[in-house]
Amino acid sequence: MLCQVFPERYQAQLDEKVSRLHHLIPSLSDLTVFPSSPKHYRARSEFRIWHEGDTSDYIMFNQETKEKVKIKQCPMASKSIDELMPKLMAEIIRTPELRQRLFQIDFLSTLSGEMLVTLIYRRSIEGDQTWLDAATHIKTILPITHIIGRARKQKICLDQDYVMEKLRVDNKTFHYQQIENSFTQPNAEVAQKMLHWARKVSHKAQGDLIELYCGNGHFSIALAEFYHQVLATEISKTSVKSAQFNIEANQIDNVTVVKMAAEEISQALQGQSFNRLKDIDLTAYQFNTIFVDPPRSGLDDLTRKMVCEFERIIYISCNPETLARDLIEIEKTHNLIESALFDQFPYTQHIESGVFLVRKPA
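Below the sequence we write its predicted structure tokens.
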């Protein structure tokens, strides 16, 4: 798809996803479907830039034909991105310092109203005062909060490399630092619905929560109030630092983030010592619930086995095929209580889903 939306087909494509998810996982119970807005739903977008004569255009490539397609509007993107695109391109065309060998433009928007734009070049911009002056100027005349310039081994921030998102869930506002070029939920409105569902199934939780693949603390922070303590793990150094920033920004005092892989935390819970856990007493936790949001490959064998040792499991999946595979083992020991489909990516084959399971009675 090349930025098109098809609102008249939205419900039909959503119904097809529901049917496909039920087919893959027949045991789904109490499936709650969380739709997306049929247009203006993507909080981030990336476009290559094509220069021809005195004009420049945003382009995308047709995946089937490999042909380039000029993009004049992108109703798939958030309204703020869609409205900014032609205004920004007009300024770039009339400003040689910005246009010269510009290769790509990335947009990152927020529901809170902030906008980060990254201009990527095939030339050096380090020490280029004319580029810096021109970039500073467009930041003052266009609705752009932050600008970053990138080139090979170069990154120039006019002020900072992140935006602050505000997600409103259950009459509460959560604040999240979202760093340029790092993973963030692409559909902010559906992200709010995902947090609502995770909070709902956590409402009667007892004890402590352990979360694997926590990213920037997106779920940990929103779920913290339902647990005595939360231990969140993440392998990305950038995401760990961002999660710690977000914990402080939300004034959360019961969440600890540690840089560890899922396999390592599995080993640590079995008694293996890790230097990164030297200040954390795992025996002081009473983990009743585990939260996992793995990559598309799903859970590895060791982690899948570990997950089954917990009373309660909350599993957010970006790949229904690997979720179905993992549930074959998990449902041997746990009952599937609730499930959800989150339409993060309308008009695509992509399905984001969630399941909540509780250990079967002995």
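The longest strand covers residues 44-52.
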